[in-house]
Amino acid sequence: MELTFAVIADEAEHCGYVFREIPKRRILSPENGDELAGLMERVDGKPDNIGDRRVLLTRIFTKYADWENEMLLGIIHETSFQELMDMAGRMLDNPIALMDSNLLILYRSQKAPVMETGTVWDIMKGNYLVPGNFYDPSEIRRFSEQIQRAPDHAVCYRVKRDPDHTYYAASFSVGGRVVGTLGSVSIHAPFTEGQIDILGRVRSFAMLYFERQKIHSPVSGITSGVLRQMISGQPCSRSVIQDELQRQRWQEEEEYLMLTFACPVPFYSELEMTSFINLLHFQFSKAVLTLYRRQITAVVRLADYPLRDGKYQSRLAEFLAAHEICAGGSRVYYRYEDAAAVYEQSCFAVKQAKREKMPLVFYRDAASEHIIELLGEKKNLRTFCEPVLLRLAQSGKKSDAALLECLRAYLLHGRSLSDTARALNLHRNTVVYRVQKLENILSTDLHDLSDEEVLACLLTCEILRKHPEIAAR
Fold first, then answer.
1. To the nearest whole percent, how much of the chain has pLDDT over 70?
2. Are 463 and 470 in contact (CB under 8 A)?
């Protein structure tokens, strides 16, 4: 493990030590520990033991060795770009952001930094693109010229709109082509030479990630023509599907889930399309992606992404919200070639997400609305309502509305009084009373309902719940 002297000096200063002089070598390793220990002294001037200095230096080298190993393992194991950059940020005093060549924000530190008001960080909140009007045209021109003259070097600069902070920017290239920029702002602390060195390492890790994930590739190198063919309803031979599965190292029968994404702007240009596909490729590097009907669709394997896990869903929703993307998830399915069937599920779910202004909706939570919508396209929804239940809704009484709510919960919970009471947060005796009243109205014992009658009652309750205007007609 090698570190620059600037990084070591920063860490030593945090622990109350300074160096009397600068060693001749700029890049140092643990083998230089004795030399470095001999050049150190306590800031407060108190006497200390050279052995303590050696221990401190060992801790510093170990800390960075562990960090670099964690970063490299994250890249090898195809950790999401968000998680990888979160790891990177642990060694930095200030927040970081990464933008692609079209200024789409690929990553920004999640924790809102203090004292951000007036900085570009403040303006970036709620935006998925870097606000171009933050910088003066002459500043943009000067920055571009500096990057072109020395593309491998970082630039530190001040801007007219925020003279109190220093800005850091470094472009990174893959395959000889600039694909993005790493940026930071001295919100928490001034940039030291050591922190700039660490930012350089973060830049190197980002470039390595881009190379391994083929982020710089054209869209045609990332997206799947096979998946597009399947979801569009075109015939696709079994051998072609098998080849796709072999490329992914997937089995024909596994747990799959389809996600369809609606981005905040229509794809009018290849640049916009490339940026958002790359962004989602960051998040789902092991998924199969395609572009169809101006939306991005992905098939993910649950063995790779724990989409059943509530915490993972919350993190994904935060990521989507930060980039103003809506996503709809299908039900879990088990044969890759069934993509066409579940595509409609993910499409309806993303439509619901847009309607409800939510970043993420799963079809399981939207299925009943989909059924009702499909029925409504063919017939007047009143056609599917049980007359006696429709009459209850038409009464306009709160007590009758409560009975309908109770009936729905009772049937959904297998006609269990206790489970219904818990679901509605009611006393069990209240549920018993309401069930008895419903049985009197329906002139039947609810336990004697056939499967068809249960379905008819549930469908009526769902229609009236989601379309209360039907009762008012």
1. 90
2. yes
